[in-house]
Design a protein that fits this description.
Layout: E1 4-9, E2 20-25, E3 32-39, E4 42-47, E5 54-60, H1 68-83, E6 90-96, H2 126-129, E7 132-134, E8 149-150, E9 157-158, E10 161-166, E11 173-179, E12 190-195, H3 221-234
Parallel strand pairs: 5-6
Antiparallel strand pairs: 1-2, 3-4, 4-5, 6-10, 7-10, 8-9, 11-12
Length: 235
Amino acid sequence: MFCLSIAYSRSSSKTGQGGTGFMLLKKMQNYVTGFEPYNERLCKLRIKGKYNNIMLINVYAPTEDHKEETKERFYDNLQYLLDKTPKSDIIIILGDVNAQLGKERLYNEVTGQYTLHEETNRNGEFAYANSMVVMSTNFQHKRIHKITWLSPDQNTASQIDHIIINANKKGVIEDVRAMRGPNTDSDHFLVNAVIKQKLSVIHKKKLKPALKWNKIYLQNPSKLKEYRSLLHNKL
C-alpha cells in the first residue's frame, strides 16, 4: 500500500470540469519546496534537486475549438509561470496539453520522430517558441503506447498528453510512454515518464508538540453546544 498526498487547484466550474493537481508519495513531501495552484488550468510543484531544482507545471490546455480569448489567456498564464521560474531549474510541463504534434521539418528541434500524428496543430507551437522539447515523441514504442486519448466510440485516437522539458535539460528523461493497463475511469491514458535526477532532502524545523484538548469541557452541555456550533460553521 502506498501513502499518498494530494495537492491540486480546483475547478471553478459547477460541472466539475477542469482542475489540475499532483498526487505524491508521502515520502516525496520531504523534497517539495513549494506548491502553487495558479488557476483551474495550471498549477506548479517545485522539488529540491541535488544539482538543479525541478519545476513541474501541470496543465489542462483548452482545445482547438475553444475561443481565441480562452486560448490566448491560457498561454499567457503559462508563459508567465515559465518566465518567473529560475533559469537553472529543470522545467517540466506535463498533462493534457491538447496538442497534436506532427513530423514537419520546421519542428524537428522540438518534436521527435516517433510522434503519432503527421501535422502539428496550433497548440503544439508553444514548445517551439520556448526552446523546449516534447519528450513524449522521442522514444520508440508501439502505436498503442503513443495514444493518450481515445474517443468514447473507440474510433479516434490521439496523442495530446505530453511531457515537455527545456531543451538543455532533456537528458534527464530516459523514457516516456502511455500506460494502457491502469483503469482511471477516463478517456485518457496515464503517461509514464522515467526521470533520472538526484534529489535533496529538505531538513525542516521540528514543530512544537500540539497542545492536547481538554476533553472535560465536552462534558459541560453549554461548552459542548458552543463547540458543535463553531465546528458546524467551520465546515
